[in-house]
Amino acid sequence: MILLDGKQTASDIKDEIAVKVKELKAAGKKAPHLAAVIVGDNGASITYVNAKVKACEKVGFDSTLIKLPETITEEELLSKIEELNNDDNIDGFIVQLPLPKHIDELKVTLAISPLKDVDGFHPESLGRMVLDLPGFLPATPYGIVQLLDRYNIETSGKDCVVIGRSHIVGSPMSILMARNNKVGNCTVTLTHSRTQNLADITRRADIIIVALGKPEFLTGDMVKDGAVVVDVGITRVADETKKSGFRLLGDVDFASVSPKCSHITPVPGGVGPMTIASLMMNTLQAIEMK
Ligand code: NAP
Fold first, then answer.
1. How many domains does the chain have?
2. Ligand 1 centre from 187 Cα, in Å?
3. What is the span of the domain harbouring residue 37?
4. Atom 24 of ligand 1: nearest residue by CA position
5. What is the CA(47)–ligand 1 centre distance, in A?
6. I need a surface site. Which of 50, 205, 208, 215 has the fewest CB within 10 A?
7. What does pLDDT average to over the chain?
8. At 11, is the pLDDT very low, low, confident or very high (cuts 50, 70, 90)?
């Protein structure tokens, strides 16, 4: 079993980006500038946004963290987004999800300029992905594609099962794995909560990408020998033995699944860091697309 080390791969990608930023600066151009908007004080969201800002520092990007109160109105948030859309100094920005219940996430996603949509959630970005046109790929699926690519995982002609059909992970992932590309050309089955006999489907899969948000859902009996398993799930589970008071669990029962796999991602240290690396790649691309 080979561990797909997202932490190391993301670090390699960030080193490569840092070199490109140095070249930009040496050519008298400005460093890419990423802004991150966070609403409220959700602990997990704060951790993710801080990690994104830290990654910007590592690669030499400028970054701006915009903290807004939980009580902000939808109108006020939309007006902040408009400000960022029109700010020439900002090359790309993200609005960290989830948002408070009184704010419509779709409205917010639609308000972000497709030219600055470095999370890749805007319908224009998703449409470009489907049509194989240049654009921003959604950060998590993009990170998974990068990880498979850098480990030279053969995907062509393979059976790939994606568990979960969210707009930000499962659905775009299924499209990317089916595309005619180096990482792609799979026969993809996209599964969800209404799927019948899921274990029969996953047992046939060469590649399983698990993104449903249910800790240790995929177990060893659901996986065939030699499968490649990518675990997207991150759930915080209370753990008094940890200083933070919690530990992170993936959607894969690592103990029973990993002995059967040819390759598997760990949690933490798998898909999470790759998502951040992809965000950095998209932000660099934003400046190139200008
Ligand atoms: P989501 O929006 O909650 O979607 C979950 C999907 O799983 C839904 O499509 C749902 O089906 C499906 N599902 C639920 N129960 C199922 C079951 N028993 N069998 C098959 N499918 C089932 O989740 P998400 O935003 O995609 O996130 C999934 C996980 O990935 C979460 O743990 C999240 O924290 C994590 N995540 C990690 C990263 C990262 O960077 N590592 C990034 C994003 C998300 P229905 O559509 O039928 O309801």
1. 2
2. 21
3. 28-113
4. 166
5. 19
6. 50
7. 97
8. very high
What pLDDT does residue 62 have?
A: 98
Quick one: pLDDT band at residue 290, thresholds 50, 70, 90? confident
The number of beta carbons lying within 10 Å of the beta carbon of residue 241 is 6
Q: Look at the alpha carbons of 42, 74, 126, 118 in this order and tell me if their dihedral is positive or negative.
A: negative
Strands 235-238 and 246-249: antiparallel
Does residue 155 share a domain with residue 45? Answer: no
Nearest to 47 by CA among 275, 206, 287: 275
Q: Say what the pLDDT of residue 289 is.
A: 81
Name the pLDDT band for 251 (thresholds 50, 70, 90): very high
Dihedral in degrees, nearest 10, Cα atoms 274, 278, 279, 282:
180
pLDDT of the residue at 288: 86
Given a cut of 90, is residue 140 above it in pLDDT?
yes
Say yes or no: 177 and 83 in one domain: no
10: in domain: no
Active site residue 196: no
* Per-residue DSSP letter, 216: T
Q: Which residues line ligand 1 (CB under 6 A)?
A: 140, 163-166, 168-170, 191-195, 198, 211-214, 232-235, 271-272, 275
pLDDT of residue 124: 98
Residue 182 lies in a domain: yes
Catalytic residue among 5, 91, 96, 116: 96
Tokens coding 83: 């400000």
**Domain ends where: 113, 129, 161?**
113
The rounded Å distance from CA 209 to ligand 1 centre is 11
Active site residue 52: yes
Whether 162 is covered by a domain: the verdict is yes
Question: What's the pTM?
Answer: 0.97
195 and 104 in a single domain? The answer is no
Q: Which residue has the tokens 């993200």?
A: 94
- Does residue 88 share a domain with residue 35? yes
**Is the domain of 209 the same as that of 155?**
yes
Q: Is residue 286 part of a domain?
A: no
